[in-house]
Amino acid sequence: MHMTVERVSYLHERKINEFMNTIRHSFRPDIHTEALLIRKAISIVRRGAFSSTWCARDGSALEASLIDEGQEIDVKIAFPDGELKCSCDEVEWCAHKIAIVFFLFARFQSLTEWQHDWQRREVEQMALSISERTPKAWNSALYRLTKPLRELDHGESPNVFVHESSLIDQKVIPLSPFEYEWKPIFELFYRMHLIDAAWDYVHIQLEESNHFTYRQWQVQTWLNEQISKLRSQVQALGKNPRPFETDAFYAALKTDFPGLVLGHKGLFQARLEIYSIMWDFLYRDQASKERELASLRDHDSVDAPFFAAFFYLTQGDEESLRIVAEKAGGELLDHWLPLADKAAEMEEEEALSIIMNTIFPHIGSYFQSIRNSNEGYHFIRKIDGLLEEAAFTEARREELFMVYGAAGVDTFGDFLIERRRFAEWAALMHRFNVPYDGIDPDTLKFVLANDSAAVMPLLHTYAMRFIAEKNRHSYRRAVRLFKNMKAGAKKSGKADFWNRYIDTVREQFRRLRALSEEMEKGNLNL
Question: Can you name the residues that pair with 77 across neighbouring β-strands?
Fold first, then answer.
């Protein structure tokens, strides 16, 4: 009879089950490299990667071929001794050998159920170890649980990263304490471990890329979600009294928490957000806050002074903030700007002024390092808004617009309009050759209504450009501009000037019949 794969799996079911038990106990789901190997083998089976199979007539052997990373791989399994051979020359288990066992096993059992049982084994072991309710037991179990994120290759796709994180979210559920009052603090411990484990990957994805893409958006969204969940747990814990049994856990958080914010690099804004969430929660009395401040002073991290600055900001201690600012300098804008946002949010004008004066000499050089035009635009808007909040003089704010050049035209234009410096606004549009379509219609209408004479030369330039395009559509656009200019001239009482101007334009372009027709329709004389 013709031998099939199903027949082979039926004949050697016991041996295949032995293989599956060997695989179950040889590979651990909490070891990233081993978990990846199992996942790859399962993927080979599920996507039908085996392009061809051959079975011995007596069912004593099965050979299969597949393409892996562009290379043809041949795998053979022989019965009853269970000899496995693979052309990849791997002596021990490889993904291809595991895959052919899975390939046969899937003929009579659910591979998905086996995978879930295999992954659950480690969680059950952790649940046994976490049955001892101590910070040490929690930290040990949660560190092992989040280890796959620590070992994740930094070049791996964010899809894989998010998937790994969601798997961990599922695995942590059976570890959570049964009692309702213990769940929030356990969740807090878990979120701290999860963020800590993922930090290196998140930092590299968000700060070492040249531009913001969908990949970065995925990672940023994940980080925002974790910080939001951290805040929710802190709020939940803050609403209820603390049982004395939890004292050891809060003490452990005070010991471990600084490692999360000071022990990592990059993404200072996110670390400051975490720090601000935990600050009032962990350091409720002044004595504990002073001890934390003393530890910050003694810490050798570059970031420590900025967390100390946050302390002084929240305490309203401007003099100490000024001392920190003088020592730290203003070169690290990525560190100072989140603090400036906090000061603006708290309406601490004096503290904001100290911060902005510290970074002011370095804003220009920092701006020159920005490569993305959209990021540069938002940076200019942000800085000018903070300078205004800090009550900087208009002259000092204008100094920076000279540094920004063309990138700052929109913001500087709004600055001039707000101060009714319409002639300077029009000159700015001329200076940087801003196209007509680049000006907000409401802005143009506002300037015409308030100082038509200031904008006349600018509108004349745009009208001449439209005429130079020499098509009827552009002529109509030019006529619409002339109508705006006519209304402005009428309002300012310059009818004679306007009639001389429009007659001169009509004479200059009298040979452009289509333009003459549009100007006649427009009834442009006063």
Answer: 62, 84
Whether the Cβ atoms of residue 462 and residue 436 lie closer than 8 Å to each other: yes
| Beta-carbon count within 10 A of 68 CB | 15
29: cis peptide before it, omega within 30°?
Answer: no
Helices (H), 172-267: 183-207, 214-239, 247-262
For the chain, the 3-state helix, strand and coil shares in percent, each to the nearest 5, are 70, 5, 25
d(CA 477, CA 467): 9
Report the candidate in 170, 171, 166 with the shortest Cα–Cα distance to residue 125: 171
Are residues 17 and 106 in contact, defined by beta-carbon separation less than 8 angstroms? no
CA dist 17 and 114 (Å) reads 11
CA-CA distance, 404 to 363, in Å (whole number)? 10
DSSP, collapsed to helix, strand or coil, labels residue 510 as coil
**Higher local confidence (pLDDT), 174 or 512:** 512
Phi first, then psi, for residue 55 (nearest 5°) are -115, 135
In the chain, the amino acid numbered 27 is F
At 84 the three-state DSSP class reads strand
Question: What tens digit of pLDDT does each residue of 124-171 get?
Answer: 556 545 667 888 888 888 988 898 898 888 888 898 899 889 988 988
List, in sequence order, every beta strand (DSSP E) within 414-466: none
CA distance 174 to 276: 30
List phi, psi (to 5°) of 130: -90, 0
